[in-house]
Amino acid sequence: MGIWSRLAWLRPWLFLAPAAVFLIVYGGWPVAGTIWRSLHQGDDAAWVGLAHYAWLWADPGFVRALANTALWLVVVPALTTALGLMAAHLSDGLRWGGLARAAIFLPTAISFTGAAVIWKFVYDYRGGDQMQVGLLNALRVWLGAEPLAWLSLPVWNSLLLMAVLIWAQTGFAMVILHAALRAIPPQIIEAAHLDGAGPWRLFWQIRLPQIRGALAVVWTAITIMVLKVFDIVHVMTNGQWGTQVLATQVHDWLFRGVPDYGRGSAVAVVLMALVLPLMLRNLWSARARR
Amino acid sequence: MNRGRRIPARAAAVTVSLMAVLWLVPVLGLVVTALRPADQIAASGWWRAPFATQTTTALRTAGAGVQGPGDTGFVIEGGLLSPRARLQAWGLTARAPQAHAPGDSVALSGGRALTVDAEGRYRLTAPGPFTDPRGQRIFVTTATPPRLTLDNLTRVTGAEGLGRALANTLAVAIPATALPILIAAFAAHALAGMRFAGRGLVLAAIIGLMVVPPQLALIPLLSLHNALGLGKGYGSVWLAHTGFGLPLAIFVLRSAMAAVPRDILDAARLDGASELRILWGIVLPLCLPAVAGFAALQFLWVWNDLLVATVFLGNTPGQQVLSGHLRALMGARGGEWHILAAAALVSLAVPVAVFATLQRPLRRALAAGAEPRC
Amino acid sequence: MVRVAGIAALVCACAAQPMVAQDLVFTPGEDPRFDWASYRALAQTDLSGQQLTIQGPWLGPDKAAFESVVAYFRAATGAEVVYAGSDSFEQQIVIDTEAGSPPDIAIFPQPGLAADLARRGHLRPLPPAMADWLAETYAAGESWVDLASYPGPDGIGRLYALPYRADLKSLVWYVPENLAEAGYAPPDTFEALQDLTRALAADGATPWCIGLGSGGATGWPATDWVEDLMLRLYPVSVYDAWVGHALRFDDPKVIAAIEGFGWFARTPAFVTGGPVAVAATDFRDSPHGLFTAPPHCYLHRQASFIPAFFPDGVEIGQDVDFFYFPAPAGRADQPVLGSGTLFALMSDAPAGRAFLGFLQSPLAHEIWMAQQGFLTPHKGVNPDLYGDPALRKMAKILQSATVFRFDGSDLMPGAIGTGAFWTGMIDYVGGKDAAAVAGQIQRVWDSLD
Fold first, then answer.
1. Within 13 A of C297's CA, how many CA atoms are on the CB side?
2. Whole-prediction pTM
3. Tens digits of per-residue pLDDT, C213-240?
4. Cβ contacts (< 8 Å) between B314 and chain C: which residues?
5. Residue C351 belongs to what domain range?
6. Superfamily of domain B154-370, CATH level 4
């Protein structure tokens, strides 16, 4: 007993140990390597200091990718979480709610290759008087408008690519939030209802605060997916027409033609730095809970 | 149970059904595309699949090889259309492909004459013998009845090695889903249910690790596996998927466990329950929804992954996972939309089947999680 | 019913698992047109029990055809050969090499990455005798030797790869009956091609179908156009200087070539759907415009592999044909643009060397020739074996090329040839000024050195 209580401080670390091994080997080590490589010449490992970062900053392609990534970070987590919450909450009282949720969850199970086929037949553009096989342009023609080459319209094209990720991930947000909503003790709702709270107030002032934790999880997870979003942009536009994001830049520097580890790693470090706010927020909330 | 206290039911029903339809329409597009003949996919939108389409195509009569004697010279006869199709118009030039009606007789150069009837039977006559081995080109405009086919799917499922690829994928996906959950459960419990210094820092580090681009981690990790003698193989790919999935697993489980009321844990500890008992007996059962949610996500991610599997398992026919197997059916230059669509549909089938089968236990798990905790 | 069939298919697939060695598509010794002597010679080498791993970019039909060639090696020597194809081959080979588990043989679709791996010491140099053999046996042999020779880790240039299988790029596809109906014949000079373009447009027809879309490689078809024009507007030395960065990308000559492409692709009346459609159309969907009625276009410039994307049932030579993208009038040489795949050794396995030896034999070329989609510059093969007349005609262009040059974008650094050049051409077709585009590409190139 005496030994155990003196060693009690060790207990959390014992529980953490297996995970820590994995995290250090599969996360920490590559991160350290990436930072190291971003400071060295790709070829001969000569120290170059911040030269890669300075180069990136002067590269219009990188700046564009950074701006696009920022746009993705604002739009996608917000819309995905909001839509997921809407679907989770509104479907809950419906008899066929489970069916609707299954429909919204289905795209989560589709591979990015599959998603690329699906959305090609939404955004496709045919010139001149050819028959449109893209859903959006067919609608436009049906309404009497000229078809548009959606994916080559700057800024719009980024938003249309975001729509693919939102479509694919709303199901994930919905499932997590639905579980959280169902977990709210009914007594709380009951009490608020007896106090005369209407459905809107119930939702905004009672339910929402109760699922704050789940909302943070969803928001964080989607943010991370956004930072890593690579396939959608790569497959649908190859980053042309100003749609490049940081993850496609990492891929291009590493695996297009001759690899340039220095610059690719520098972009990756910038990418990882973009989660700092999230990390700090979590750090802060973990402290606050203590 | 608490209907009526929500947003008015009708508005909710309209919004939800609208969303469900919006989300389903693209999936429907995939299903229909997978079932259409390859040439129709590029010719008309998938939503036109149920309608008869008017198509104009170039066909050829038989060449000089099949000519026979006619009343006043030589004749080539034959049929252009399949039995069910009906000819609407025909023509001889690409610029006026619908110039003639069925039954018209048209004079060609050199005293030749051609007639095509509504069934697509043609009769080409000439005063002297035909010499061109290549037949006369005829543009036919037909109403093609809607046609769906299982050809694409059978091509994808019939290709050799699908069973092996499925088995490989399951052999990768099941341990690669279970392993991170197991390891994450311990870590998450430590982070959520125990008090110790440095907790916030550990958590922040885990969030930071979630964003490591896998492309950068592949080379150092594969060299590590090679150095450890793991090389390429199932062990290697399980470890890699576990490593990549672990940060999110810990994060999701920790936040679910953090919602478990403290007093329950403290009461159990006062009763002398070990931390392991608390984790397995109390915390995990309460967090089943989160576990199920993460398991679904990780399973799907591993199921659809190609990169990690190719790097850590390999890409030879014996090692190929389903996604790699389906990619291999396509040409190196891609773009075979019918195969892509059929392949995507096949790879979608298993996760859907898994979720459908697990639906009941899953729902029970969710319901268990929904029970009051205080 | 469907479900039952599906399950049955699964069961069959599982049951068929023990992989039966692939049967040989042409029985050795049977058809005298094949060079069976090389097969008998190969059978002298006993490699039973040895394993050979090959990684390459070929999938689908290409993979099947290549494996049918490999089957002869396996049957003759007893070696176990495993081929793994991937559509992200470049990524796989870099990862596997850097991590220390490379295959025995890698098939590079472009020389750039091969050169880089050679410089880092990951490729095994090939004997000088093989370079001599290449120069002698391949049409325009010296240019093939150049393509496969790179400086090694010590900076000394050596042969590091064996080219096997070529693609021809300078081809214009058309439907003969449509062109004849419109009253025109295939042009034989570049000027005549321009006249034909103008004349078709004046008749109210659209002359060209051009599509630059290609998923993760969007933009590349435009680089082929610019390269073909560089080869036609100037002497070959200018092309070589441009590719080797001795001529700046923003040189007026290069800008003129880009504008030469723009003359076709940016004149709204010359191209289906106008310039907007050029960038937005997938290159695999683009040739379909030739076959519609009325035709959306009459001409389509694309490499020898494009028939794979023609509608079903289209027969080359009858329903569609091609002509050599012509050189300007009065030009003495006939420049031809092409590309080739390169086999490089990454290990010292004896089976690897033996396999490259097998690829030098006419038989290894003839097996694939007699099937689909294969061209070779090997002069020792029997041209009668080409599977269809179109291939034979292409082979003739390839074999009679006085100047053969490789796809320049493949030879430039990756950040240019598969990055800035692609993006620049998309921007150019989108309306940006040629000089501005060239200047942007040059700036990226400057930053690499």
1. 32
2. 0.86
3. 887 788 899 999 999 999 999 999 999 9
4. 84
5. 37-167+338-406
6. MetI-like (1.10.3720.10)
